[in-house]
Amino acid sequence: METPYTDHLTSIDYEQVYEPAEDSFLLLDALEADLSFIESLQPQVCLEVGPGSGIIVTALAKKLKETLCLATDINPYACKATKKTANHNGTFVESINCNLVDLLRKKTIDLLVFNPPYVVTSDEELKNQSYTNSQITFSWAGGVHGRRVIDELLKSLDSILSAKGVFYLLALRENKPDELIINLNTLGFTAIKFMERRIPGEYLYILKITRK
């Protein structure tokens, strides 16, 4: 898959949305490595939760031309940036300003992608950030174990993922990926560590999650 151009976004944009970094590129690499499997699913609907600049969902939209590609973000700036990135790269992504999957129809998502806010912070620190003008904190601050948003989405996974759906989730070592895999197993899913990478200061995993 081609890495989308983001030269239309400025330093001012990146004060409000997450700038693509090593975690973004790991997720892109994982999706490209598993592209033959993804294409074999013939996904009708793809969703990226929390797209930030929009490079992941835009890359998928360019490759999966018969798939409706959606993005949801609680940050309205990220929704605007994602639409701009898709347009700038000659494709279309429908961007929806909402929390996680709140506004989506049940059992419709064939391909789900999430690079969550995974940095370990206190919940109090996260709460205090809600009173600032910047939205950028919500792109990385994950609360206790960096799992606050991840665990919230997992509660909705069964209701949102289609029968053939696959979910690619990025996780930090501090997010306890082995525990996540056990939790997913109890929810009726199979999860594996599909790809992993050490980057400066972090060790990252891509979990591939399917129904049993």
UniProtKB/TrEMBL annotation:
Residues annotated as domain Methyltransferase small: 27-124
Listed CDD domains: AdoMet_MTases
Keyword match Transport: no
InterPro entries: DNA_methylase_N6_adenine_CS, Euk-Arch_PrmC-MTase, PrmC-related, SAM-dependent_MTases_sf, Small_mtfrase_dom
Domain of life (superkingdom): Eukaryota
PROSITE patterns the UniProt entry points to: N6_MTASE
Family: Belongs to the eukaryotic/archaeal PrmC-related family.
NCBIfam families the record matches: hemK_rel_arch
Protein name listed in UniProt: Methyltransferase N6AMT1
